[in-house]
Please model this.
Amino acid sequence: MISVAAELSGLHPQTLRQYDRLGLVCPDRTAGRGRRYSARDIQQLREVQRLSQDEGINLAGIKRIIELENQVTALQSRIAELADSLEGAATTLQQREATIHASYRRDLVPYQPPTQSSALVVWRPKR
Model:
């Protein structure tokens, strides 16, 4: 409800409507199209007011700041997803490498320097 959000944020209801029209804070809507402000929305209203009053940033600048913050959050999530994917791929690669190296151990024969004998031995691996 806009009156409750206005009271919690310390802003006039008309200011909240303006922020919604400008896309600065876009609360969810009820079935009857009424605004439903979450705790995050109230916090964002306070931040918009702080940037406007204390920092002197205009509303267009604040909108850009919010867009960039949202983009940073999305990119951080994507980085986390890629890091998890990379970690999984590295684990899979290490497992495959270990399997390959384990198979080599059965196929390799230690080197022995040749003796004076001229005999030839042919080694055939089991398959």
